[in-house]
């Protein structure tokens, strides 16, 4: 049965801006993508293509459905926060009660909600 999460897919009407956000702000890397017959990108964390981007369709109006957000395990809290601050990007940073995990919540350029989870030992 299921043994892991393969990838998320987001839709964008502005591929360069979306790639800038996920690559230059969040640190994913653009990598190989098969010819799927439409514009888009695959973004990698290490060797895994964990985020697929569709750039050939309009963003559906209204609510994004039952999926609330995507969450990534991350490192470099201080550096990531600095990148957000330098670009004037809005975010909500909090430390989870109990576990101490740092959680940075934000939205990508198309409005998808993203959570970055950092080890409690990281400092600002």
Strands side by side in the biggest sheet: 1-4-3-2
The largest sheet is:
4 strands, mixed
CATH architecture: Roll
- Total number of beta strands: 8
Query: How many structural domains are formed by the residues?
Result: 1
User: Quaternary arrangement of the chains shown?
Assistant: single chain
CATH superfamily: 2,3-Dihydroxybiphenyl 1,2-Dioxygenase, domain 1
Number of helices: 2
Domain VOC: 4-119
Protein name: Glyoxalase
Organism: Ramlibacter henchirensis
InterPro entries: Glyas_Bleomycin-R_OHBP_Dase, Glyas_Fos-R_dOase_dom, VOC_core
Overview in brief:
This protein has 124 residues and is an alpha/beta fold. It has two helices and eight strands.
Structure description:
This protein has 124 residues and is of the alpha/beta class. The chain contains 2 helices and 8 strands, in the order βαββββαβββ. The strands form 2 sheets. A 4-stranded mixed β-sheet has the order 1-4-3-2, covered by helices on one side. The protein is globular.
Strand and helix layout:
Blueprint: E1 8-11, H1 15-25, E2 29-31, E3 40-45, E4 48-54, E5 70-74, H2 77-87, E6 92-95, E7 102-107, E8 113-118
Parallel strand pairs: 1-4, 5-8
Antiparallel strand pairs: 2-3, 3-4, 6-7, 7-8
Based on the model shown, name its key terms.
four-stranded mixed sheet; alpha/beta; 2,3-Dihydroxybiphenyl 1,2-Dioxygenase, domain 1; 33% strand; 2 helices; 124 residues
């Amino acid at each position: 049965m299921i043994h892991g999460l393969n990838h998320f897919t987001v839709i964008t009407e502005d591929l360069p801006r979306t790639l800038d956000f996920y690559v230059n702000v969040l640190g994913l890397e653009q990598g190989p993508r098969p010819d799927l017959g439409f514009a888009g990108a695959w973004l990698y964390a290490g060797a895994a293509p964990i985020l697929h981007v569709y750039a050939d369709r309009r963003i559906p109006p209204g609510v994004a459905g039952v999926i609330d957000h995507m969450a990534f395990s991350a490192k470099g809290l201080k550096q990531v926060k600095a990148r957000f601050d330098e670009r004037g990007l809005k975010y909500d940073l909090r430390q989870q009660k109990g576990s101490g995990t740092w959680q940075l919540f934000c939205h990508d350029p198309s409005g998808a909600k993203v959570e970055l989870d950092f080890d409690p030992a990281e400092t600002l």
